[in-house]
Amino acid sequence: MKAASHAETDRANRPQHQGTFAALKLPAYRIFFGALLMQMTAMNMQMVARSWFMYELTGSAVMLGAVGLGSALPILTVSLFGGVLADRIRKKSILVAGQFASALVALGIAVSISVGAIGWIHLFVASLCQGLVLALMMPARQALIYELVGDNTLMNAIALNAAAMNFIRLTAPAFAGFFIAFWDIEGVYYIMTVLYAIGFMFAVRLPRTGTDRRRESTTIQELTEGLRYIRHNANVLAILVLTLFATVLCMPYLFLLPIFTRDIFLVDVSIFGRLASWPLIGSLLLALGESSARQGLLISVSGLGALAGSLFVASMSSRKRGLIFLLSLLLAAVSLLAFSATRSYLLALIFFITLGLGLAGRLALSNTLLLSNTDDIHQGRVMSVYMMNWGITLVGVFFVSILADRVGVQLAVGGSAGLLAVITLYYLFLTSRIRSLD
Questions:
Q1: Is the pLDDT at 422 greater than 90, yes or no?
Q2: Residue 37, number of CB atoms within 10 A of its CB
Q3: CB of 126 closer than 8 Å to CB of 172
Q4: pLDDT tens for each residue of 103-145
Q5: 232 vs 85, 148, 235, 242, 321, CA distance in Å?
Q6: DSSP state of 260
Q7: What is the DSSP string of 138-198?
Q8: Is the separation of the CB atoms in 401 and 62 below 8 Å?
Q9: Dihedral of the alpha carbons of 302, 307, 312, 318, in degrees to the nearest 10
Q10: What is residue 303's three-state secondary structure?
Q11: Where are the alpha helices (DSSP H) in 183-250?
Q12: From CA 372, how far away is CA 382, in angstroms rounded?
């Protein structure tokens, strides 16, 4: 049985394709969208702030990997239970609790910096806590989209989520990087606290969709049954396996960016000549002399391509989604390979635009294909396994960071991207399991 909601009849009667912003016509989704904006803005600021601050404190690529590992451990050990929780109780309650906990974690780091009691161990513990929050919250948040919009608007809603996240990637990391360069790191964490608090207020206003499901089976039995369901659902299993390869081999670059921006991509502002003497432009160019600003700008420009990719997916029909998913993944792999091979900051910015385009298509379509190929009573558990991919990725980041210390960050990231391209070509030309999905 499908989870009941106040908009079920309206959703059922909607046509399959309703325009780029169809999901935003639903009031419940607009509230969800507001909570998502606040959470993702804070998380994208944290992406720059935490990695930059850890590298400033330690100067170690291994410690950059370690802070990623801190987030990975709870995701690897708790995500499956988060999926069971999402299939048992109202997903709104989980989302509300997660937003509140995220605000507390950000506030704890901000206060620690203010009183001068901050060290790498605090960042590691905060990473652990944030990983625990994500492990318990994300399966519910992903599955809640279905309850709010239904089948017909699902791909549009997920693509709009991705578009919002990519617009935030276009602005929030650059803001965080320039804020650190001009002012201080603690201000970023206080801003993150406020954003999480606003997201909490949005989440409280969400409608009560679904039901609390009382079951006689134990948590372990439900977990085992969910894994058995995945093993026998060939489409879901194939998507999860390829997504695992994609995240493990592609995403480590994000955590190793401080090494690129501090040691490889240097910017000599004197080459801009008279532009450097103009007050506003000169200040921005001067800020690019700081590694934090270069890092933030790189992440932001990737959001430019990602925003375009997400809006494209939001506008497309439900045909050849598997093929476009594979092409998006191939574009991301090739772009990352080219990025890792250059020492030019300008070329790196260009390659990050196409990287963002490919990653946006991969993210939106992997979520859509998973949810559309899963029955509603297993969606929480399927999405929890999907979330575990991110945890495994963060473990991969740790080992790639060790490799980067041994052979150099460009070779480590480029080798991973090249391997991903080969795997994607296999799925594109030698098997039709994913390519044939609509």
A1: yes
A2: 19
A3: no
A4: 999 999 989 988 888 888 888 888 888 888 888 888 888 778 8
A5: 22, 27, 9, 16, 22
A6: I
A7: HHHHHHHHHHHHTTTTHHHHHHHHHHHHHHHHHHHHHHHHHHHHHS-HHHHHHHHHHHHHH
A8: yes
A9: 100
A10: helix
A11: 185-204, 219-232, 234-250
A12: 11
Give the H/E segment covering residue 316.
none
DSSP string, 262-288: III----GGGGGGGGGSHHHHHHHHHT
Residue 172 structure tokens: 């929030």
Contacts of 232 (CB under 8 A, 6+ apart): none
- The structure tokens listed for 18 are 């309703």
Q: Which of 253, 257, 252, 254 is nearest to 393 (CA)?
A: 252
Question: Using N-to-C axis directions, what is the helix angle for 154-182 and 27-58, rounded to 10°?
Answer: 40
pLDDT in tens, 27-63: 888 888 899 889 888 988 887 888 888 888 887 777 7
Give CA separation, 253 vs 152, 273, 293, in Å.
35, 32, 17
Type of residue found at 202? F
- Residue 167 token pair: 């617009």
DSSP 367-435: HHHHHHTS-GGGHHHHHHHHHHHHHHHHHHHHHHHHHHHHH-HHHHHHHHHHHHHHHHHHHHHT--TTT
Nearest-CA neighbor of 414 among 194, 249, 184, 246? 249
Could you tell me the two tokens for 126? 């905060």
pTM: 0.66
Tokens 């039709």 sit at which residue? 432
Residue 102 contacts residue 133 (beta carbons within 8 Å) = yes
Instruction: Give the C-alpha separation, 392 to 248, whole Å.
Output: 7
What contacts 350, CB < 8 A, 6 or more positions away?
Answer: none
SS percent in the chain: helix, strand, coil, step 5: 80, 0, 20
